[in-house]
Design a protein that fits this description.
The chain is built from 8 helices and no strands. With 171 residues, it is mainly alpha-helical. Helix 3 runs antiparallel to helix 5 (105-112) and helix 3 packs parallel to helix 6. The longest helix is centred in the middle third of the chain and has 26 residues, at 63-88. The chain is globular and about 45 Å long. Residues 25-35 have low confidence and may be disordered.
Length: 171
């Protein structure tokens, strides 16, 4: 996800081309709340995540910060894919799931193009892990964690809006 950076797009697409200007004009907090002039911006968390990445890695307000942030989101997703595989199977199932997602074309491409797509698996994987674990063990803390991941995920990729209905169906 982070190798061969030169083969990734070096310019922002239509969704992100105004991102650095918007941040410079209004500050990170303002952009995250009202990037498109609306408080209902679907991908608020992407701006906070990119701000954190820019601050931690010193990359500044650049397109590279967006690419690095989504690549890191893809790498972090692998942790919960492994944990979810271990919960549903055993260590070998977890390792198999980790390798499949780690080398899959789809997961790598969405993590490398600096759009908000990797936010969906980034928040759904921990949600599923804690939800399934909570349903198995009846642990209140797992349900709280699942709710937390669900709430954060709703500020990520737009398709996450269907997830609350799927969580209700799980019960």
């Amino acid at each position: 996800r982070v190798v061969r950076r030169k083969r990734r797009p070096d310019k922002a697409d239509r969704d992100d081309r105004h991102f650095p200007d918007a941040i410079r004009d209004g500050g990170w907090y303002h952009v995250a709340v009202a990037y498109n002039g609306s408080a209902n911006t679907a991908d608020n968390i992407k701006f906070y995540w990119t701000a954190l990445v820019a601050k931690l890695f010193g990359t500044g307000v650049t397109f590279f910060s967006l690419k690095l942030g989504t690549a890191l989101a893809g790498v972090i997703t692998l942790f919960y894919v492994y944990k979810l595989g271990g919960l549903l199977g055993n260590r070998w199932v977890a390792l198999f799931a980790l390798v499949l997602v780690g080398v899959s074309y789809w997961a790598n491409i969405i993590s490398r193009i600096a759009l908000r797509f990797p936010l969906y698996p980034l928040f759904v994987a921990p949600l599923l892990y804690h939800l399934i674990r909570g349903l198995r063990n009846g642990s209140r803390n797992d349900f709280i964690w699942a709710g937390l991941w669900l709430g954060i995920g709703l500020n990520g990729y737009t398709s996450s809006r269907i997830v609350p209905f799927l969580v209700v169906l799980a019960f």
